[in-house]
Here is the input.
Amino acid sequence: MKGIVQAGLAQFGDVDPDQSLLRALESSAVDLGEIYRIFMGRLIKFRGRSAADGLVRDAVLAAWAGNGVPTGDGTAAAENADWSLTDGLIGLGEIIAANPEAFSVIITTNFDPLIEVALARAGVQTRRRVVTGDAPIANDTTASVDGVVEVVYVHGFWHQAPTMHTPEQLMYSRPRLQTAIVRTIGNADALVVGYGGWDDVVTGALEALAVDDGATAEVMWCFYESDEAVIQARHRTLLGRVGRLIIDGLFHRYSGIDCHAFFPPLSPRVGDIFGRGSSCRPRGAEGSSPT
Here is the structure.
């Protein structure tokens, strides 16, 4: 997110005439997600959606190491090796490859195809679903049967699809999708990684779980921040919305989780963990690590 805002301010400086957003980017106490949403809101208002889509495309292509540009959406088998993947994404692919049935659905707010690329490199088949309106998740009851991992993009996709950025877009009511996310998680466990807990359909689904007295899904939330005071300040709204899960011991917080450092050494152990009959029953993992 920070890279997109920096590139956007360099290209469209007129949307930040007093340079307040530029200064805020340098503050360690600021909510980067909030800066991103404010910037994108201004950019779309004054320059149109095409300007935002162009920034997203440029950000995605920064990970492209092949010649020219990708063919189509960049997930063709022949182009798989042409993407530069972070250690976190490589580790995520290896973890899921060790037991794809346990991670049958990945719900992401990212726009890029790199989760799919990482899974393909690890030998995992995927099925994509882009939901930018209000619709259920297709095949959410069959993905775990055939071993194919469903990758659901709930904020849009970088190629031939709209992308969602502003508070108005993210907070728009999407009851069918929210219900589908709740149903997908069901009574399994949800692993949340690299996600800021924005006021959107994903957090709304977790709130719906929190008010469902019959729900037994456990949420394992990995915070990038290490300082408890910072977590409380930045994620006050999120923690309030999942209060019932916290009270019932169904919301587990883990701080200081950097996916790039955490996933690679974990991936070789996952097969042994599941092989011992672990009670972990994750159905969804969100996003990739912050940038």
